[in-house]
Structure formats: C-alpha cells, structure tokens
Specification:
Blueprint lengths: L1 E5 L6 H12 L3 E3 H11 L2 H12 L5 H12 L8 E4 L5 H10 L4 E6 L2 H10 E4 L5 E3 L20 E2 L6 H15 L2 H5 L3 E5 L7 H27 L1
Parallel strand pairs: 1-3, 1-4, 2-3, 4-8
Antiparallel strand pairs: 5-6, 5-7
The protein binds adenosine monophosphate.
Adenosine monophosphate binds next to helix 2 and helix 3.
C-alpha cells in the first residue's frame, strides 16, 4: 500500500505515520527527518538548507524531490510506504508522479489555534528521541524538561519558534492545501473527533480507511496471481 499523509504542522502526522508503518509493515518516510539528517551530518546539502529550514520556509523542490527519489528506490519501499511531508506543493506532486504511484492520500485536518499551541509545546528527549507535548495531557512530561524514560534533557526543534511556526502554517495554507483538489478522489479527509485524545484512539479513524484500501489491494493482487 502506498500512502501519502499530509496535514498542517502539529496535527500529529509523524505519530500517525509511525502507527501506519507498524500496522501495515511499510516504511515511514519523512522528508523532514531526511532533511534534518543532512543538516545534522553537515553535508553540502545540509549546509545549504540549514537557514531555510530554521526560517520555516520550504527548501528548493529539486533537493526535496531528489532525496525522496533516492529513498523510494531503496528495497524496503518496494512493497509500499507512508510518505510524510512530501509532496508539499502542486509542483512536488507532479515530481512525485514521475517517481511513484500512490494508492491513497490522507489529509489530516485541524484548527489553527490548537496547532500553534501544540507546536509551541512539543519537545523530544535528546537521548532516546521520545516525544512529549505540554499542550497534550497524555504527552505531558511528569517533570518539566526531563524525559520520564531515561532522565534525558528535552529539547525543542530549531523551527518550533513562534516566527517559524507562523511561516510554516502560512506555507501550508498557500502551497499545500491546493493538493486537496489535485488528488481528487484519491484523497480522504480525516478530522479527529477528539483531537487531544491519545493518538492510538484517533488512529482508529485512519485504520478504518486504510484497512478498506489494503483489503482491496490484496484481493486485486490475489486475483492477478490466480
Ligand atoms: P517537517 O518535519 O515535515 O515539519 O519539515 C521541516 C522543514 O523541512 C520544513 O519546514 C521545510 O523547511 C523542510 N521541508 C519538509 N518537507 C519539505 C518539502 N516537501 N519541500 C521542501 N521543504 C520541506
């Protein structure tokens, strides 16, 4: 199953992409993570995009598309994938059409005020990477700034600043929302009934949609094989 997941920053795309990856056995491919790795390693690309990422603007299309193309060419993506953060504009969606087909596009929608609070509240352990969020009761650290698992320090993303959050949400409205129309009947819009409920509970809404599509793909596959 080849899935795209998109939605405004702070809606929990990454968490749900991980849950999809675990349930359906397909890799979670996050372009944001891939780009942050380039920055972290200090590669030529990383040095080129560091400032742009911190500002909240999009890095050049060629860079994002090229990294996605390389990632999708790896063996584990042959059986499917959940693509998080790409495409983020119509031009990137056209780039993707040249690289891979998709079966379903999930659009997770949510109210702006909730998103700003969530982005402002999120942090992760610098040792084990566990995510926390002081704006979500079930994800609030017991002791502020400290990981409940290993006592590591909780650090915030460089682009979770008020200025960059504003730019990122504006870019989403202007560049990414047009994808709703672009993907037409491949798109499924999900609005969580209780946005602050634990992710596993909200995931049931996503599971229902993906189970249906997965069953269809599997029966089409076995008909072909018969
Ligand atoms: P994310 O982790 O998905 O919130 O992405 C973090 C940052 O990476 C964004 O604010 C952009 O600077 C950059 N980025 C992520 N995805 C893309 C993309 N598809 N095209 C260009 N830049 C991107």
């Amino acid at each position: 199953m080849r899935v795209i997941i998109f939605g405004p920053q702070g809606i929990g795309k990454g968490t749900h992409a991980d849950l999809i990856s675990n349930k359906y056995g397909i890799p979670h491919i996050s372009i944001g993570e891939i780009l942050r790795e380039e920055v972290g390693k200090g590669t030529g690309i990383g040095r080129q995009i560091d400032d742009v990422m911190n500002s909240g603007a999009l890095v050049p299309d060629e860079i994002a598309a090229d990294l996605i193309k390389k990632r999708l060419a790896r063996n584990d993506a042959k059986k499917g994938f959940v693509l998080d953060g790409f495409p983020r504009s119509i031009s990137q969606a056209k780039d993707l059409e040249k690289i891979a087909d998709v079966d379903v596009v999930l659009f997770i929608s949510g109210a702006r005020k909730v998103l700003v609070d969530r982005l402002s509240g999120r942090a992760a352990c610098e040792k084990c990477g566990k995510s926390y969020n002081s704006a979500i009761p079930s994800l609030k650290p017991k002791k502020e700034g400290v990981c409940g698992v290993d006592g590591g320090r909780l650090v915030r993303r460089a682009d979770d600043t008020p200025e960059a959050i504003k730019v990122r949400l504006e870019v989403f409205e202007k560049e990414t929302i047009p994808l709703v129309k672009f993907y037409g009947n491949k798109l499924v819009k999900i609005v969580f009934k209780e946005p602050n409920a634990p992710a596993e509970r909200n995931f049931e809404q996503i599971s229902k949609v993906l189970d249906r599509i997965n069953d269809k793909l599997e029966s089409a596959g076995s008909e072909k094989g018969a």
